[in-house]
Specification:
Elements: H1 2-20, H2 31-39, E1 42-43, E2 50-51, E3 59-63, H3 75-78, E4 85-89, E5 96-100, E6 103-104, E7 116-118, E8 121-124, E9 127-128, E10 135-137, E11 148-152, H4 157-160, E12 167-171, E13 180-188, E14 192-203, E15 206-217, E16 226-238, E17 243-257, H5 264-269, E18 291-308, E19 311-328, E20 331-353, E21 356-378, E22 384-409, E23 414-437, E24 445-471, E25 474-485, H6 489-492, E26 513-526, E27 534-549, E28 552-555, E29 560-563, E30 566-580, E31 584-599, E32 601-602, H7 604-607, E33 612-613, E34 625-633, E35 641-650, E36 653-654, E37 662-663, E38 666-680, E39 683-692, E40 700-703, E41 719-721, E42 726-736
Parallel strand pairs: 8-12
Antiparallel strand pairs: 1-2, 3-11, 4-5, 5-6, 7-10, 8-9, 11-12, 13-14, 13-42, 14-15, 15-16, 16-17, 17-18, 18-19, 19-20, 20-21, 21-22, 22-23, 23-24, 24-25, 25-26, 26-27, 27-30, 28-29, 30-31, 31-34, 32-33, 34-35, 35-38, 36-37, 38-39, 39-42, 40-41
Length: 737
């Protein structure tokens, strides 16, 4: 593995050196200068505006033109070109599993949080979608209205706190200031239908925009039907030159069925089936109509004020209401929650003279969520029972305080940054259990028992980074820092497990996942001679090593969690964008990883037989290789059109820590074409056609980690099959005033 990493890094650096020999110096006001300016991407996911080449972290920006050809339904469609990031669709819809460098959704068998992720923080227009305990639901994420997506693939805990896997920040603010109205209708395989309305205009108060999506999908597997309605509106306004106030209002209604995992024999015989075999689960996924129905809304504001050229203040506040219904594991559950929070960040830049400056960031984050969960019996018709079985009050508070200093030397040629963050995450649980007797309200009687619990986790996280901008287009960086991922609510408050006594509602045995990440990287923009067939090349290379303590592993269908001692993740990532003469553009991403447990002993109380050692085993759910290549052609004779093809490859990996259940690797190909044709005056026609999985490859799209053995079979149910060949046609009209 080390030989591969060293050799690949050496080859890429040689590749850079060959192209960089005797470059023609760009002159002011030339085409090359304009091309360079388009590549100097400014990112904001670092909590301040910085040029990507100067950030000592691996950062990928997905521009709007790469988002336009997707269905806008699932994150796997828009993040396939982000190195180190693996997004797996679980049923062909928006329910996905997201991992960055091994952090992300931990499958939990039958208790896997369908439609949620953890370990990675998600933000939309600066407002957190991630809950205080680190879990994220994707209901509100508006991909059809996204103007860009920034992904920090590195450990950024010193700035963002809980969730060490990285940051995914989505902007829905239109890039165009010209008033517009856009209508889009999509149709596709397996009953996919989507209608989108987007509009924006300048008002006296500022830029006002609106986006709505209504999506229905019958699903390619049995019992996988889904529907999603999203509403997203924003006001971007300025009060003079020094103050900007943004208001964002979002809402969603998300209803989807869960077909469940298949055993290998079920997958081999009929991958489109749902899990409906009583020898595997009783009741089955179909019998209990396993489903989620989420309705939620949020209003948030961000404020930016410049006290002077060198002193800025950024604040954010939001409040969110949620009403969730779930039919799962033999119970019907109703959630009523509210989620609120905010932050404030003060930035100060001090000129030190002789080309040196110091930028300071100090701020805090606060998030609080509380609400009740009512548990009902699940009737034979898979509907809510008459009386509540138990009521649980479940709350969490997440507070963080951070400081970062960045020293720039030699006119921003070298920058050194150091950061420190303190986090405190507290859980509050109160549970009331009822035992009802009788069939009517008048005749019923009940017994009641209560249990209370509270848990608190503290962590101080440091970070140190250095960037050397060797040339205006070439930089190298290195960083080292700590990370923390606090256990989520359902991990600190697990279900009862035979033979294990949990003395309070909050499990005192779980500790946060702590990690140390060391990383080196290269970012380079290459502009060859004028007579080259290559117009420009941008690539970034990152190599990392992450030592993790207390990886949390689900067992007993997620009924309890075990700390896996220590593990090590190593990897090499390559991101590439190259433009050629004639309108060709090549995009690529490559991730080579090695993920091992270095100290993992499973006690007999958990294994069920005897104490076993998984030391040196591969970590479950993480392939050692995955890559994407996309070729796009915008013909010069018809620049408003494009043809695109994409290849995605995922290597094999294990579904369990024992390394006995395997997911085979696969390669799928997509092709698409589109045109944005001016019809008359200010009216434009958009037409996109996409064919996914053109070879109709049969593959395992995702797995459930550490699955349970089927009730009366020798097999394990862990396979979630991938979407077969499918088409999507999109027709849209744009009216630009």
């Amino acid at each position: 593995m080390k030989f591969i990493i060293y050799s690949f890094t050496f080859c890429c650096l040689c590749f850079s050196a060959v192209f960089a020999q005797n470059p023609k110096a760009p002159k002011k006001d030339t085409v090359k200068t304009k091309e360079l300016s388009t590549q100097e991407v400014v990112v904001t996911a670092t909590r301040q505006k910085e040029i990507n080449l100067e950030v000592p972290l691996a950062v990928t920006v997905v521009p709007q033109k790469l988002l336009e050809n997707a269905r806008g339904y699932s994150l796997d469609e828009v993040l396939s070109l982000v190195p180190g990031t693996l997004v797996q669709s679980r049923s062909g819809n928006h329910d996905v599993r997201v991992t960055i460098r091994g952090f992300g959704a931990r499958g939990a068998g039958e208790r896997s949080n369908a439609g949620t992720s953890r370990g990675i923080r998600f933000y939309q227009d600066g407002i957190p979608d991630t809950e205080p305990d680190g879990r994220t639901a994707f209901d509100l994420i508006d991909l059809s209205g996204a103007s860009s997506i920034e992904v920090i693939r590195s450990n950024a805990s010193s700035l963002w706190g809980n969730a060490a896997g990285g940051i995914i920040s989505i902007s829905t603010v239109p890039t165009s200031q010209t008033p517009f109205i856009s209508l889009t209708n999509q149709t596709g395989s397996f009953g996919f239908m989507k209608q989108t309305l987007r509009m924006g205009t300048q008002t006296d108060a500022g830029l006002l925009y609106l986006s709505t999506n209504n999506t229905n999908f019958e699903g390619w597997r049995a019992h996988s039907k889904s529907s999603l309605f999203q509403f997203n509106a924003g006001l971007v306004s300025s009060f003079g030159q020094n103050t900007k106030l943004n208001v964002f209002l979002v809402g969603a209604s998300n209803n989807f069925r869960i077909p469940g995992p298949l055993t290998p024999s079920q997958y081999d015989s009929m991958p489109a089936q749902a899990q409906n075999d009583t020898r595997v689960y009783r009741p089955t996924y179909v019998q209990r109509d396993e489903r989620r129905f989420n309705r939620l809304g949020r209003i948030g504001t961000t404020l930016e004020h410049n006290f002077s050229e060198n002193i800025t203040l950024n604040t954010m506040t939001f409040i969110q209401a949620k009403y969730l219904e779930r039919s799962e594991r033999g119970t019907f559950r109703e959630f009523t929650r509210y989620h609120t929070g905010g932050n404030a960040i003060l930035g100060i830049k001090t000129e030190l003279g002789d080309g040196a400056s110091l930028r300071s960031l100090i701020g805090f984050d606060e998030q609080y969520q509380d609400g009740g969960i009512t548990f009902f019996e699940l009737t034979s018709l898979a509907t809510k029972g008459t009386y509540p079985r138990s009521i649980k009050q479940e709350g969490a508070n997440n507070f963080g305080l951070f400081l970062q200093e960045e020293l720039s030397l030699f006119d921003n040629t070298v920058s050194v940054s150091a950061g420190l963050r303190y986090d405190n995450i507290t859980y509050f649980n109160q549970s009331t259990d009822y035992s009802f007797r009788g069939d009517t309200v008048s005749s019923r009687s009940s017994t009641v028992s209560k249990i209370d619990g509270k848990g608190s986790f503290d962590q101080v996280t440091p970070k140190l980074g250095i960037t050397w901008r060797i040339k205006p287009t070439f930089s190298v960086y290195a960083s080292i820092g700590g990370g923390v991922e606090v256990p989520a609510g359902n991990e600190t408050d697990p279900a009862a497990v035979e033979g294990i006594t949990v003395p309070t509602a909050v499990n005192p045995l779980l500790e946060p996942i702590r990690s140390v990440t060391a990383e080196i990287g290269v970012k380079n923009i290459i502009i060859p001679e004028d007579n080259s067939i290559i117009e420009d090349v941008y690539y970034d290379i990152a190599a990392y090593m992450i030592n993790v303590t207390n990886d949390l592993i689900p067992y007993g269908s997620g009924g309890y969690y075990v700390s896996a001692g220590k593990s090590r993740r190593m990897g090499l990532e390559l991101g590439l964008q190259s433009r050629f003469n004639g309108g060709l553009t090549l995009y690529g991403s490559l991730s080579v990883t090695n993920n091992k447990y270095t100290d993992y002993i499973l006690d007999s109380i958990y294994s069920g037989t005897k104490t076993v050692s998984y030391t040196d085993n591969s970590m479950a759910g993480l392939p050692s290789l995955f890559a994407t290549a996309r070729l796009r052609w915008n013909p010069e004779f018809l620049p408003q059109a494009f043809i695109e093809t994409e290849m995605r490859n995922v290597g094999e990996y294990f579904a369990d820590d024992a390394n006995t259940q395997k997911a085979t690797g696969y390669t799928v190909f997509d092709v698409s074409a589109g045109i944005n044709q001016h019809l008359f005056e200010k009216l434009y026609l958009r037409l996109n056609v996409r064919l996914s999985n053109i070879t109709d490859e049969k593959y395992i799209a995702s797995v459930w980690i550490n699955p349970d053995r089927a009730r009366t079979l020798s097999e394990y149910a862990y396979i979630e099959p991938g979407l077969p060949q499918a088409y999507n046609i999109s027709i849209g009209l744009d009216w630009k005033f």
